[in-house]
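TASK: fixed-backbone design
INPUT:
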């Protein structure tokens, strides 16, 4: 009996990406630890996962996730200056992303950085990573997925 080859599922594009396969985003202040890299592309992987790829040769790439897909009660209360720097007046106008850390050992789960979320304005295509020092959720919050 021959088993047909499985095709990977087509990425599902969140409404805020407007179905585009690669969306340019700028980070006017850079990303902490990578301040000189300010131009990125956001590429959907599928569902809430995306690649945030540097537009620079040999720049950093990050796997990011929309944490609200897993933790619908997660909230970020940006300060007024953060909202202004992203060109919005309300936090609901932003999309929240979190950098994913993949496990190095079998049996471990991937984690997301909820202490340093990335806030993006999908209309203006700009972003900013913020640090929330008083967050009850840390930089290695387990992503609740089944394996």
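OUTPUT:
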């Amino acid at each position: 009996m021959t088993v047909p080859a499985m095709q990977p599922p087509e990425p599902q594009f969140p409404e805020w990406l407007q179905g585009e396969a690669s969306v340019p985003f700028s980070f006017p202040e850079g990303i902490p630890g990578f301040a000189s890299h300010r131009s990125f592309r956001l590429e959907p992987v599928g569902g809430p996962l995306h690649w945030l790829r540097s537009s620079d040769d040999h720049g950093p790439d990050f796997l990011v996730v929309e944490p609200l897909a897993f933790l619908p009660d997660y909230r970020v209360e940006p300060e007024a200056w953060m909202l202004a720097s992203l060109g919005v007046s309300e936090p609901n106008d932003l999309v929240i992303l979190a950098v994913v850390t993949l496990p190095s050992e079998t049996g471990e789960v991937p984690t997301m950085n909820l202490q340093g979320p990335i806030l993006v304005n999908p209309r203006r295509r700009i972003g900013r990573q913020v640090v929330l020092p008083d967050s009850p959720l840390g930089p290695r919050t387990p992503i609740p997925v089944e394996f």
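COMMENT: DSSP finds one helix and nine strands in the chain.
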